[in-house]
Amino acid sequence: MDLDPLILSRIQFGFTISWHIIFPAFTIGLAAWLATMEGMWLASGNPVYRRLFDFWIKIFAVSFGMGVVTGIVMAFQFGTNWSVLAEKTGPIQGPLLGYETFTAFLLEATFLGIMLVGRDRVSPRLYFFACCMVSLGTLFSSFWIMANNSWMQVPVGHQIVDGKIVPSDWGAIIAGPVFLVRWPHMLLAAFLTTSMCVIATGAWYLLRGIHRSEARGMMHWGMGLAAVLIPVQLFIGHLNGKYVVHHQPSKIAAIEARWHDEQPASEVLLAWPDEENRRNLFAITLPPPFGSLIDSDSLSAAEVGLDSIPREDWPPVAIPFFAFRIMVGMGLLMLAVSWFGNWLRFRGRLETTRWFLWCAFLAFPSGFIAVLSGWVTAEVGRQPWVVFGLLRTGNAVTPTLTGPQVLATLLGYVVVYAFIYAFGALYIYRLLYEGPTEAGVRHAPATGNRPMMAAGPAETATGTAAAAE
Length: 469
Prior knowledge:
single chain; two-stranded antiparallel sheet; mainly alpha
């Protein structure tokens, strides 16, 4: 059996990016949460905020470290598997990734050390400033990554010189109209992911009858933030859909499983796309003009079907179709949990409604699922282009790469990731299971030589060690 290096490289990239994206999606929001808790502790002196900070910074330290590892692998693959992409788009993508390192990693690296080991070494105000700078660094990182990806989705501000894509307008590349709706969409997704994790943790403690003060703080802050952000996210998501309609007709046709041009268009809520026969099986459809209204804000707009697009330019229809609906479903789930939870809170029934606490706890992966499915929708829907309209994915892979080489590295990544992240997830689970400490201090002092001690020594994650203390 022949091993296709292109297919294997795409699988490898999808595998590594799926692992990577869940960590920034969590730590971007968590960094902002930590800065907020530290600011609230400084402003009010309430020890609950201090205990929440000292608890979540342990989770942040471990998650941040795992995110850095996966990020290094992502950059490494551009040279090994996608050298043609790096060669042809390097004049644009190289500076954008360099700016991320310069503005984000340096900022985070400088102040992360203060966050982890500087509590007793600097003034409270300087410590709070360091927390804000780390949070700002995560935002800068997402800024440059999304600027890079948005340019790949809708390439603007460039010209082609000697077969290479070179910049002609950095303003359009960095802050084009597509980026200005995609970056807020990603930021809100990150904040909502963290919010759902915080809500779920608080619900878990209330179900177990422990850490009640901290659990109330987690649920109240998390549900309040999610309740406000979800409607905004739905609106920003609609704006993202409008850019897809105008710039990527093949993607929106696949998302809608729309096979023929329609004016006005219907809206397929759920179906099984039959790509071979160009039809939808078991379709649940809203009649016209719902499709035109949703896609183009019009009652009479013409919507493009896949039949109007060359077959070789089609993305795989089923993947973006279902991924998009999973993303929307997770958003509606987060909306229901946050709004109903706030209703229970205002009625004083939040802590006694155990079925809702179980729902809130079980909803913890909804943010991660939404981020992953949204990313799949954007990236698979862009196919067969790696830079939409300019460079096909099949032409971007390293020409000397062989199938066995990619298979070997793919299996290596799977084994290493399974080992590292199984232990990382177990360690985070133990930190979550133990919960905030009563004294509001870390289990063991962190030092410059051992900064990861901010996450607590491994043995303190067990009940035996906690009892021994």
